[in-house]
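INFO  loader      accepted 1 record
INFO  loader      residues=211
INFO  predictor   begin
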Amino acid sequence: MTFGFAPSSAASTSTSADLSAASTNPVARLLEPAEWAAAGIPLLRNPREVVSGLHARHHPRPATAIVAVLDADERLRASASFTRRPAPADGWMFRNALLAQLRRVIPHDLRRRTPVRTAVLLYCREGDARWTEEDGAWMWGLRDACTLHGLRCGAYITLTRDGWQVLGEGRGGRRPSADSAPEPFATSEAPAPPPRTGGAASEVLRRAAAR
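INFO  predictor   done
INFO  writer      dumping tokens
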């Protein structure tokens, strides 16, 4: 026999109200740098090579997000880019946009007990490399999209005019940057599919911005 305590109606009402407020509050859908660093995100063996390859493949400008899937050997298997529409930073909206792109370019791994592929996100934006709430919303969205697609959550990388930065790791470089010309693609010897742009995710962001 198990004994316990039933929550009071007041406590239940309070909990429901708290959950409802959290679900409608975009600020709750972001990750702080300390939370991200403590999440056990796998380190990239050669982040500059990954960044240079994605930069050469997609030619990102500010407000461009690139989600890429790497295999266990850090070879690029799929990638897609899209433009973030003007709207408040919201991890839930970013999650939906990233998930829509992942579903377009690569099958899910939900049947696997342990993820074998990793998704990384490169976001080109204005400003410097310091963490912003927008970055926190992208982190939240990437982590959630990976869970829903059966992938391991990988690095979140910002690309600005000062260069690139792997947030939570302290690794970065001056090239490529948001202003630099693309360098030769060299992230993998394995053939990768052509980049995808736009699609359902752009429509999701467009509708959200119109509300």
